[in-house]
Amino acid sequence: MTNVLIIGNGGREHSLARKLNQSSRVDKIFVMPGNAGTKEIATNVEMDILNFEEVAAFAKRNKIEMTFVGPERPLVQGIVDFFNKKSLAIFGPNKRAAQLEGSKVYAKKVMKDCKIPTAEFATFTESKKAYNYIRDCDFPLVIKAEGLAAGKGVIVTNNINEAQNAVKRIMDDKEFGNAGDKIVIEEYLEGEEASIMVFSDGRTYYPMVSAQDHKQIGEGDKGPNTGGMGAYAPTPLIENEILRKVKGKILNPLFNYLKENKITFKGILFVGLMVKKGEPKVLEFNVRFGDPEAQVVLPLLKNDLLTVANKVVKGRLDEIKLQWKKEKALAVILASGGYPVKYQKGKQINGINKFENLSNPFIIQAGTKYENNKILTAGGRVLAVVATGNSYQEVYDLCYENIEKIDFEDLYYRRDIGHRIKGVKLIKNE
Questions:
Q1: What is the number of helices (H) and of strands (E) in the chain?
Q2: Residue ending a domain, choose from 319, 351, 376
Q3: Cis peptide leading into 140, omega within 30 of 0?
Q4: Cα 63 from Cα 98, distance rounded (Å)
Q5: What is the pLDDT of residues 345-385, one digit of tens each?
Q6: In this structure, is residue 120 part of a structural domain?
Q7: Is 49:72 a contact under the CB 8 Å cutoff?
């Protein structure tokens, strides 16, 4: 039996804990710092996850045989390198590999060098030069903070005023801190979004089932970007021919480039795609499970996750074959009113106990905390209602029929998660 540690406190980490809790090989699960949901199936540990010395000491003290890193910041700052020096097993890419997410400028340079299809772009370190560049651009235009901005450093602009205001917010006002020291300005790609997460052991890679996130706050994909308001998997958008192109034009060139440059990528590569007329282009690379993509992809994985992680870390992924349920999964995020701008925390959440005797749908908690025998909101994206089933309509209906069991002040959710799936009847149209 194995003790495992999960680093992070969101819905992705609750999803990982839930998946690992189903493993016959796992004894104890620790989540650092965790949330009110992980508290029910694991032991939450209050600790600064960026204090690698303390985290590693905890792992040794508690005989942790595998550490899973949920969020990107510890990866970008080198937690994997630190653990490797301590001979501690950890699932995730090292600091060099993690720059694919940590630096948008670096990621775009790699895409350009590899001839990976992506948006045309320019990078800037001075706001004045960015302002001048924008005057000659066509719109819409995408302005991105170069570094990590918790999924909020991407602003779609429709005219010169909006674009220059975005540059001001990022570079001059430092809305995202040091993440805005550099920016990427790129063309707006039209089409339909999808994402594919990939297991890689540095030699072999296996794509997972595809997913489609819904990033905009408003129904019909309107309004500002969020961390994700819901997702479903698999998406019919990524049929076999497009997957072949993703492998041939994106994954193979990227992994060959990494090998040639002696960058060993072990862990999860997340590929954000825009697909138009059957042609995929890369929006972004991330280096960890997506959120909320993990909530819908992990329930479909038949394999024992700990076994897969061990093969990845040991460079022996080719010894197993990934197996997937022939089902669909859908997740609807329940957010705090005002998210992603201003929202209140500390609101009591009612109704989670109504899911205790249900295996499907189920609750994945994200921005929650347990205090004074109550579950309270502690973030913008509070929790997700997740369902699996044999059809998209079944999982859509299961989620939305059960959302009303949950209640907290200023609760907000989109009613159209999965609206691009042909044939799905949405509740708002009934």
A1: 13, 23
A2: 319
A3: yes
A4: 26
A5: 999 999 999 998 889 999 999 999 999 999 999 999 999 99
A6: no
A7: no
Amino acid at 402: N
Per the structure, the complete domain to which residue 135 belongs is given by 126-181
Longest distance between any two alpha carbons in the chain, whole Å: 62
CATH of the domain at 414: 3.90.600.10
Any domain includes 121: no
In a domain, 73, yes or no: yes
* DSSP label at residue 173: S
d(CA 421, CA 295): 18
Chain mean pLDDT for the chain: 95
Based on the fold, state whether residues 6 and 52 are members of the same structural domain. yes
pLDDT category, 151, cuts 50, 70, 90? Answer: low
Residue 29 pLDDT level (bands cut at 50, 70, 90): very high
Mind spelling out the 3-state secondary structure of 393-424? HHHHHHHHHHHHHCECCCEECCCCCCCCCCCC
Same domain, 266 and 304: yes
DSSP tag of 184? E
256 lies in the same domain as 300: yes
Amino acid at site 214:
H
Nearest to 90 by CA among 117, 62, 119, 70: 70
Residue of 305, 303, 365 lying closest to 331 (CA atoms): 365
Residues 207, 301, single domain; the answer is yes
pTM of the prediction? 0.94
Count of domains in the chain?
Answer: 4
**Is residue 172 located within the same domain as residue 201?**
no
Residue 92 DSSP label: S
pLDDT in tens, 55-74: 999 999 999 999 999 999 99
DSSP string, 292-346: THHHHHGGGB-S-HHHHHHHHHTT-GGGS---B-S-EEEEEEEEETTTTTS----
Which carries the bigger pLDDT value, residue 320 or residue 138?
A: 320
**Based on the domain organization, do 262 and 299 belong to the same domain?**
yes
Q: Do 152 and 201 sit in the same domain of this protein?
A: no
